[in-house]
Amino acid sequence: MPYTYKHPRPAVTVDCVIFGKSPDGPYLLLIQRKHPPYQSCWALPGGFLDLCEAPEAAAARELKEETGLSGIPLTQFHTFGAPDRDPREHIIAIAHYAIVDKKDHHPQAADDAAAVQWFPICKLPDLAFDHAEIIEMAKAHL
Fold first, then answer.
1. Domains in the chain, please, with CATH?
2. Which residues pair with 16 in a beta bridge?
3. Which distant-in-sequence residues (6+ apart) come within 8 Å of 17 by Cβ?
């Protein structure tokens, strides 16, 4: 169905904060971005909603496309909508989180991810966009 609006609209994305439990401490799953903006920077797995797609379905799809991980129950926890959070345009992100056993999940980079890696939560690299803020909010939410 075509849509025509008089006024511009923001785009909508999803981000996935995947915490990994491990005997040596908590970890966080990050991807290295393959494309601009923030090419080669580390970020949360995520991406744009497809037309007529629910945010929960988009989060699961993007997680699988970028990391190969599927079947992980994701919980929506916050919406991030600062107009300048993305240099491309006004993009609203709906954030989701999950806690998994790290030993049971072996991600592999695909789609828009050049690499994927588990990082100790206390030693995260510099992150793209406002992903450090999203991670802090997820930690506070837990």
1. 11-136 (3.90.79.10)
2. 96
3. 28, 44, 95, 96, 97, 98, 134, 135, 138
Q: Tokens 């999203």 — which residue?
A: 134
Residues of the chain above pLDDT 90, percent: 91
The helix (H) or strand (E) run that includes residue 31 is strand 27-33
Instruction: Report whether 128 contacts 36 (CB < 8 A).
Output: no
Give the helix, strand, coil percentages of the chain, each rounded to 5.
Answer: 20, 35, 45
Identify the H or E element spanning 12. Answer: strand 11-21
Task: Give per-residue pLDDT as tens, 56-114.
Answer: 999 999 999 999 999 999 999 999 999 999 999 999 999 999 999 999 999 999 988 99
Lowest pLDDT segment from 1-15, 30-44, 69-83, 118-132: 1-15
Measured CA to CA, the distance from residue 49 to residue 111 in angstroms comes to 15
